[in-house]
Amino acid sequence: MLTDKFGRHINYLRLAVVDRCNLRCTYCMPENGLSWIKQNELMTDEEMLRLCSIFTELGVNKIRITGGEPFVRKNVIDLIGKISRLDGLNDLSITTNGLLTEQYIPKLKEFGIQSINLSLDTLNEERFFTITRRKSFDKVMKTLDRLLQYEIKVKINTVVMEGQNIEDIIPLVKLTRDLPADVRFIEEMPFNGNNTQASLKWNYSQIYHHIKNHFPDMEKISDPKGSTSYNYKIPGFAGDVGIIAAYTRSFCGDCNRVRITPSGVLRNCLYEDGGINLKDEIRTGKNNEELKNIIINSIHKKPKDGWEAEKLNLTPASLHQSMATIGG
Asked: I want to staple 18 with a disulfide (CB 3.0 to 4.6 A). Which of 53, 56, 68, 148 is the partner?
């Protein structure tokens, strides 16, 4: 079992399979993209599968595939299939923007994928283009429809941005009236690749009161252990509403997750700078037991929360790195 120095059991791994993305969302990266990781610095499929196997042997039973946009990676569907067959893995899920996902949905169902997080910041086609700098709204909506058709649980992830999509909050909530999908509103974070300050106005409290004013009968429901979202139910609605305090970081106390970047860096916290590069350790010839010891020792040093991680590790420059390079 993986346990940090605060006694928290780590059973959730977020694996970023690629840093590249086919969108250019304003809150994630510059319009011209980023300096992408060189091919030989990315982990191979075999290295990713090996690390996932090691983590499941250490007690991790939930893995989320992220990016960048994971389906940009060549033959990623084969990698997902192999990961899905690992012993001890109970929950394999994916975060995607939906542009390339629709064609793979039957396979994902076959692999036992139970949940997909779908990034969607607006229900307005013009605002979608303004935010993502791409005309692909119809592809995302087709992916949403087909995921629901295949009865795969959908969580819509919406980054709330002042001056860009505030008018979409209530329509997105209303979307859950009839659709069995949850929507989760996320505080904007500084990881935008632009060296610009995220707006703090629309924090958890502001988002909550905005929704509550429109739906006064909205009620709190229980949050699963380790959940990053505060969850709510509107009576009669098919889906739920969640709010993720990603910047104010009020959910860190029972954190149960770690992440691996596309280049193989193990990060104990989103707000942590650097970490152990497991890919490099593999390529120097470390065996599985040696890798396990490295992982155990690293996770034991996991910071108490995101504020401590930022204070101890994060430089001003790395605070504004893109989420695509960190791992969604």
From this structure: 68
pLDDT in tens, 99-146: 999 999 999 999 999 999 999 999 999 999 999 999 999 999 999 999
**CA-to-CA dists, residue 237 to 29, 30, 240, angstroms:** 35, 37, 7
Q: Which of 281, 307, 260 is nearest to 65 (CA)?
A: 260
Cis peptide before 33 (omega within 30 of 0): no
Q: Which helix (H) or strand (E) holds 295?
A: helix 288-300
Full-model pTM: 0.92
Q: Report the alpha-carbon distance of residue 268 to residue 94 in Å, rounded.
A: 19
DSSP 153-188: EEEEEEEE-TTTSGGGHHHHHHHTTTSSEEEEEEE-
User: What is the CATH number assigned to the segment(s) 12-326?
Assistant: 3.20.20.70
The separation between CA 95 and the C-alpha centre of its own chain, rounded to angstroms, equals 6
H-assigned helices in 99-244:
105-110, 125-132, 137-149, 169-175, 204-214
Rounded Cα distance between 14 and 1, Å, is: 17
